[in-house]
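Justification of resources, computational component.

The compute hours requested in this renewal are based largely on the per-chain cost of generating structure records like the one below. Each record pairs the submitted sequence with a full structure-token output. That output is archived, and it is also reused by downstream analysis tasks.
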Amino acid sequence: MRTPRITALVCTAALAASLTACSGATRPPQGTTGGADFQVSPTSPAAKGPLSSFTWSLYAEPYTLDYALAYDYPPNTVLANVCEQLLRVTPDLRIEPGLAVKWTRPDPRTLVYTLRPGVKFHDGTVMTADDVVASLKRQMDPATGSPWGSAFKTVESIEKSGPLEVTIRLGKADALFHELLAASPGTVVSAASLAEEGKDYGTPAGELNCTGPYSLEKWAQGDSITLKKHPDYWDEKLTPKSEAVRFTFVEDAAARANAFLSGTADGGYMVPASSFAQLRGSGKGRLLFGPNTAAANLAVTDFKGTLGDLRVRKALSMALDRANIVKAAAGGVGVPAKAPAARGAWALVPEKTASLFDTLPEPVYDVAAAKKLIQEAGATGRKVTLATSSLSPEISVVANAVQAAGRQIGLDVELRPVSPDAYSSLFVDPAARDGLDLVITNGYDNTPDPLEFYQYLRTGDFGNYGSWSDAEYDLAFDRANTEYDPAKRTELTAKVQEIALAQLPVIPVYEAPYSVFLGKRVTGAPTGIAQLYYPWAATIGAAQS
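The structure output for this chain reads:
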């Protein structure tokens, strides 16, 4: 629940008509989308031929290409094609083998990973267990400063147990740790390159030596990042269809839409909702929607201030006109959020989604009752400071809606403008949040397990921006995380969800499908949030043979 951008799995054709029949929806309930018509699928039509290159638009320049520090959409969108993990999240939100060809759990506290043989780094050297050990241990080193460090909090040791085998021992059972090895925590890079690059690693001055279908050719800071095809890539199913990929950085939403329309960018993820109508009617390409595990939330960053009173948090939630926020912020393509973790995050055991998520009540909109709560709390006239930014129109829309809601119920909601670069810092630098009561976040799961989102609200977790602490919550989370059976774990996760909704350390706002624009010359891209770790660029090719 960490990133600033504000942006449903597809069923089989037989199930697609039923909202409760699968882990995500092709279309939200009637009357909840502001009139927008959209459908969700995990992939675009397959490529019909190769390309010499294509250009991809990012909404911001990556602040790093260091896998251990990558904690936002721009860096992970690039790295997904360059570096790989022990496990892999597929476009339809499944977890499958990646650089680890298999794994076993001899006991609840031991994991043994057998590595894929013959995998070559971009410099031609062969991946070994030593590379895996060095890559994973680096995230545990406080000197690295990895935001993913908390994922390793139960890890006691990571050891080479054979030339192509790594054994990890845990201090206690931890179901999420294994799953997160399909995301940044499981990234494997060349140990030799880490030692050689030192402080330059992941910067424009450094090099990357990974195993993905593309290698880093050039990072021209402030201009572009260029990747080139890795000729010795191990996965024949994902042999790149394009020889090169060029990433450009366009922060302004209107300018980004113009890049799509003019063809200076062939495509891009996280399309500004303010451009949906224009792009749909342009005839210049296709606007597609894919599976998403994200929800737009208001994360409380100061529990010692006005929002430390639960009545005030509940009142602010009740005063939000979510239906109109969906229309204005998401182009009508979305639904009011029922919980901090989105419906699409419940993909691990799809058959449980109907009973554990769909039965949740719709969020209450009652300004009069909210105003009464504010009065009971003695909070009338008290200040709440919310960060806003020009990073995306959605942030401004939500911020203005929160300010208007606060005024209606007697709160003084002050908007603090933050530059796009500084806004990203709010999620990695606690000092950047000083003086703030709320930030607008896009809380998403990297894996299809809903429990993953809720780990960020544990006492002391890096993603717990307001340092919220609740003993009952921590206990419920631990019970769920020590249950290795996915079906049983989702049942226990429902209790964690219940506490989060009762205490509101984050206030759910809305959820929407993932978005991607593809110009007329390209196709083949996965459409959903799995693109953060799946080598999506490898499948993009020519739309015409």
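Residues 219 and 225 are 4 Å apart (CA to CA). The chain has a mean pLDDT of 92.
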